Input
Amino acid sequence: MEKISFIILLFILSIFIILYIFMEKETSYHEFNTINTYTIYVRDEDEFYQELIFVDSINEYIIQDNQYILKNNYRTMSLKDALLNEVISIKEAMEIIPDISVKPKNHYEIGSISSYTIYQSEDMNNICKQTMDYFYIDDRYEYFFNCKMSKFYLIRGNNQDYTLTEALEEKLFHIEDIKGIIPTIKYKTISYQTIDIIDNIEIVETTFKYDTKDQIEIIFLIDDKLYYFPSQQSKFYKIKYGNNYLRLQEALDNHLISIDELRLIIPDIYER
Output
């Protein structure tokens, strides 16, 4: 009988301990903000805390360092459940709660340059076609990967996403900066091939081209006529004059070649 009484007493004591722990945990939350009919409470975590709370078609949203709950007169729920049940939108949550971080879906962060974050796709190691992947060119070098992997990188900053090529061509950072983060980038001196010769002046183009931004690139203006590429393509062409390689605009401005001659050689130049 005494043994049964002891077991019952031990059971009751365990219940009290569990209730105490629960109440202590509950009261460790403090009021943080309000939204709609709900009050938001926050609890500072002593240990590292991180949780995926929401996913849309583009991004993953992660809460870290603190836990949040929403409460009104009728119900209490975690921030994750509130988002899932559309009690609060992710946009509203991010405007109020500073602990929410965002990363592209199925990507992970590999570094940052200035205010730009560089992400790499989780699929890259599984899918990489073994062929040269040229993605950028400057005045001296052409940059490439040994397999088709430039598409697996994403650059995010100023509320906008960029491909690796777009970020470099828009001068968001220098190629040397990104080489420190992505060591698999290769480079070599630009090689050209001659596509035509006019009066000892060679029109040359790079031995490779890559997709460029669909944005008109004006190369010449004369007599109220505008000559342009439909995308950023002029970088792939040069005028070789002696031992010098000139940009198309320079050669046209210095009358080394006429725009009519150039259009016969490069049909992608349009007139407006």
